[in-house]
Prior knowledge:
Blueprint: H1 3-23, H2 25-28, H3 30-51, E1 53-54, E2 57-58, H4 59-89, H5 93-97, H6 103-132, H7 140-164, H8 168-184, H9 197-203, H10 207-220, H11 227-251
Antiparallel strand pairs: 1-2
Helix pairs in contact: 1-6, 3-4, 3-6, 4-6, 4-7, 4-8, 4-10, 6-7, 7-10, 7-11, 10-11
Amino acid sequence: MFANHKYIAFETIVVKEVRRFTRIWLQTLVPPAITIGLYYLIFGNLIGRRIGEMGGYDYIDFIVPGLIMMAVIQNAYSNVSSSFFSNKFQRCVEEILVSPVPNYIILLGFVAGGMARGLAVGIIVTLMSFVFTSLSIEHVWLTILVVLLTAMVFSLAGFINALFANTFDDISIIPTFVLTPLIYLGGVFYSIELLPAAGQWVSALNPVLYMVNTFRFGILGSSDVNIYWALFMLVVFSAVLFAVALILLRRGTGLRH
């Protein structure tokens, strides 16, 4: 298969995925924006006034990067997991797999679609944040790199979830029992410096902590973790999850009935 043919196949999958979530934007883009807006209003503005400062910043300024990252994570994950499983359920994925398109192109197409939705929601909630606070980005390129890597990691995780899922209920199990606890305990609403030593050690095992804090460093210039180590972990997570997803796809895991 020639390179231009691979690009056309990749572009086709990405365009399909983007059209899928933009066509129903009232269900995919508006609800997360409203949810994060309520976080801004209640936790950041109303409760934040009583809390005062966190990590040397006004509380609302401190939580905004974490809330943006939370929106990116949830939407990148849910887009790929729901989309690929829907293709499995409707037997559309079989048509893709029997085509001469390489498996890595298929994987990249779905992941890029998930990243697109995650980034779209991230941009929306970032623009909304200016209503409540006047943040400026300290390290622009680092911020962009972190949000891209994070969206990629959770798009890949969503793809793996979709491969193993047998019912639509299986799609919601991981976000409910794994993803949500990781996000809420990942330093979105607090600095891990507030925790006792044992709590900090446990938090250090949470991958979301590194994503949130690196993104916070990009915006505020402050972090609870080593930035270089966090970036290294993000790259490793991306590479490992991509390799796992590609191996599972080649083996046909969850695709044979």
